[in-house]
């Protein structure tokens, strides 16, 4: 039984014992991790005097699931809350960055730098011109990349990293030009044979490259460690 189903059964049992209403709040995403200490109570449940301890164990299980990077209470497995907003812990964003950077052969520090400057790590961000999600994909770009929901962090980072890979290939690995193209479009970069003379794009490139250096430094230090 996965943790979601197990906790659902636990909450129902708590409601029976305490008389509380089981409204389903507190569910977490499925996990292969067991719920330590719960099996000892067996299928017969708990006597009323043990209800407090039982509830404490449930809260501990929820806390463990959250610390593992799964959805917080009230969210689905993708991190979407009932309001429709996506709310992810930083470690989940880092995991998506690492996964897709490796898949597409892009420096994860560069992907993270783009996200930081595009959306400030806000999966629900929408720009005035309609760019969406963590990597601020325009609807037509998202469609061309096979992204059906740009606010879905997993799809967004996958699509954005794939697009960044394409720009790096188009400009022969030139990070500066690829970043400029991410903001202004590859046609503008080709037209001006470099960063276009747009203040927004020039500021954007400077900011992304600055973030890139900051995110890359800890990784280089870690690799240099004996």
CATH architecture of the largest domain: Orthogonal Bundle
- E-strand count: 0
Helical residues, percent: 55-70%
* Mean pLDDT value: 73
Low-confidence stretches: 1-7, 10-55, 57-77
Write down the CATH class of the largest domain.
Mainly Alpha
Compressed to H and E, one letter per element, the order equals: HHHHHHHHH
Largest sheet data: none
Give me the CATH fold name of the largest domain: Lysozyme
**C-alpha termini separation:** 43 Å
Question: Could you walk me through the main structural features you see in this protein, from its secondary elements to its overall organization?
Answer:
With 226 residues, the protein is mainly α. It has two domains: 3-67, no CATH class; 90-224, Orthogonal Bundle (Lysozyme). It has nine helices and no strands. The protein has helices at 3-18, 51-67, 90-104, 108-118, 139-144, 153-170, 175-184, 186-192, 199-224.
Brief write-up:
The protein has helices spanning 3-18, 51-67, 90-104, 108-118, 139-144, 153-170, 175-184, 186-192, 199-224.
SSE layout and pairing:
Blueprint: H1 3-18, H2 51-67, H3 90-104, H4 108-118, H5 139-144, H6 153-170, H7 175-184, H8 186-192, H9 199-224
Relevant terms:
mainly alpha, 226 residues, 9 helices, Lysozyme
């Amino acid at each position: 039984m996965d943790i979601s189903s197990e906790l659902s059964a636990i909450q129902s049992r708590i409601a029976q014992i305490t008389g509380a209403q089981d409204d389903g709040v507190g569910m977490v995403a499925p996990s292969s991790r067991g719920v330590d200490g719960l099996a000892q109570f067996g299928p017969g449940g708990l006597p009323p005097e043990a209800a407090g301890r039982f509830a404490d164990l449930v809260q501990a299980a929820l806390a463990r699931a959250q610390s593992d990077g799964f959805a917080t209470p009230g969210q689905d497995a993708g991190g979407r809350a009932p309001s429709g907003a996506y709310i992810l812990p930083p470690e989940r964003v880092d995991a998506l960055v690492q996964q897709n950077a490796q898949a597409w052969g892009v420096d994860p520090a560069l992907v993270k730098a783009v996200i930081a400057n595009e959306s400030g790590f806000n999966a629900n961000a929408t720009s005035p011109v309609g760019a969406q999600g963590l990597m601020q994909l325009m609807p037509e770009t998202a469609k061309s990349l096979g992204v059906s929901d740009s606010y879905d962090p997993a799809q967004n980072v996958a699509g954005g990293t794939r697009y960044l890979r394409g720009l790096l290939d188009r400009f022969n690995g030139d990070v500066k030009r690829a970043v400029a193209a991410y903001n202004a479009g590859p046609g503008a970069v080709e037209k001006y044979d470099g960063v276009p003379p747009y203040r927004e794009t020039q500021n954007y490139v400077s900011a992304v490259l600055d973030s890139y250096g900051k995110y890359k430094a800890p990784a280089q230090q870690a690799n240099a460690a004996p």
